[in-house]
Every structure is written in structure tokens, then in C-alpha cells.
Write a sequence for this structure.
């Protein structure tokens, strides 16, 4: 015979965490043994709807609310499997069971919405905090890298200056003693320093009357031995 469908009436079931859930289902079935279907059960559609709801209520009662709401396919398969043996006794074949409604009461619905909103805000707060932490880390890393590059550049510059001074000393030492060559280089640095600090017209710079004791300029070009 052709496949038929019955829709159960809504029934309140209670989950393992004691939340009331209104559930109903559609059962798709076909008679394969008319004699059994007639004599093994009083009113087949009503009896089929009753055992469907009983099975559904049993499985809902074994699950937490969030499991019930997120595992409808699993519930369909479990209830369908439960009906197969009984269906054979009654001369019918169960094709499938489809749960049509899983609804909580208004109080539970409001509580769930509040929980969802709280979780959304929590996720937003965490995301914002993570973003700020990431920005701080990136800024710190950028500053660290800049400081490293600056220090590296300054070190390279100092190394080049030292190399240049060494070469300069070597050159003038050909005409002066090493001591006098060093004094000449020191004198040049002192004069360069005064030149630098006196560039700002707002600053007052007091120069000494003489530089004796600071450095001694070489007085001849003869190289001492």
C-alpha cells in the first residue's frame, strides 16, 4: 500500500535538566500486512501517534536541553528505530519520523535569549581585549625594532667614525708624533663641539680665554722619534 503520514499532537516533555519542551512529530508509514494492521491494534493511527510521542518523550528526558535543541536529526533516527519492531507486529513499515516542533516555554525562551545576549557581549569584550592586546604587542614590537635599528645604526656610525679617525691619525702621524697627532685630533673635536653648541642664538656659550690644559697644539711639523 501507499505511504501514509500522521501528525502527532504536541506534547510537553521534560529534559534531563528539567526544562519543559513542547514536541510533536510526523510519522511516515505504510501497511504491509493488512490482517495484522486490522487485528493486532485497535486504532492504528492513534496507537502509532501514541508510541511515537512516548518514545520521543523518553529520549528528550535522557538529554540536556541544549542537546535536544541541537540534535534533532539524532532524535528522529532514535524514535524511528524504536518504532520498527512495533510496526512489524502491527503489519506496517515505518519509513521515517520527522520531529516538527521543539519549543520551550516563554520563561525558558527569555532566559535563553538573555544567556545568548550575555555570551555575545562576553565574546565582544574578549575580542576587544584581544584586539587591544594585539595592538599593544605590535606597538611594543615596532618600538623595539626601531630601537634596535637605531642602536645598530648608531653603532655602525660610531664604527665608521672610529675607522675614519684611525685612518686620519695614521695619515697625520706620518708628519707628527703619535702624541701630537692625538692632541690635534682632540683639539679639532673640542672646536667642533663649541661650534655645535653655539649654533642656537638663544644659548649663551662662554669660551675660555685659552685652552691650556685642555689640549696642546703641535708647534712644529717635525716627526719626533
Amino acid at each position: 500500500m501507499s505511504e501514509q503520514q500522521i501528525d502527532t499532537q504536541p506534547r510537553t516533555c521534560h529534559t534531563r535538566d528539567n526544562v519543559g519542551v513542547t514536541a510533536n512529530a510526523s510519522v511516515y508509514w505504510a501497511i504491509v500486512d493488512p490482517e495484522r494492521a486490522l487485528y493486532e491494534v485497535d486504532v492504528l493511527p492513534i496507537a502509532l501517534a501514541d508510541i511515537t510521542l512516548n518514545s520521543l518523550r523518553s529520549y528528550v528526558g535522557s538529554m540536556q536541553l541544549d542537546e535536544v535543541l541541537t540534535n534533532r536529526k539524532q532524535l528522529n533516527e532514535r524514535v524511528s528505530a524504536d518504532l520498527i519492531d512495533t510496526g512489524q507486529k502491527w503489519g506496517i513499515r515505518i519509513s521515517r519520523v520527522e520531529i516538527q516542533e521543539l519549543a520551550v516555554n516563554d520563561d525558558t525562551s527569555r532566559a535563553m535569549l538573555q544567556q545568548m545576549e550575555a555570551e555575545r557581549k562576553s565574546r565582544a569584550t574578549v575580542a576587544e581585549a584581544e584586539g587591544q592586546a594585539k595592538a599593544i604587542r605590535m606597538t611594543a614590537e615596532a618600538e623595539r625594532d626601531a630601537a634596535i635599528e637605531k642602536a645598530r645604526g648608531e653603532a655602525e656610525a660610531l664604527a665608521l667614525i672610529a675607522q675614519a679617525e684611525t685612518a686620519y691619525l695614521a695619515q697625520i702621524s706620518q708628519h707628527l708624533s703619535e702624541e701630537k697627532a692625538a692632541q690635534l685630533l682632540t683639539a679639532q673635536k673640542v672646536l667642533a663641539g663649541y661650534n655645535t653648541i653655539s649654533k642656537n642664538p638663544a644659548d649663551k656659550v662662554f669660551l675660555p680665554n685659552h685652552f691650556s690644559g685642555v689640549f696642546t697644539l703641535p708647534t712644529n711639523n717635525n716627526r719626533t722619534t
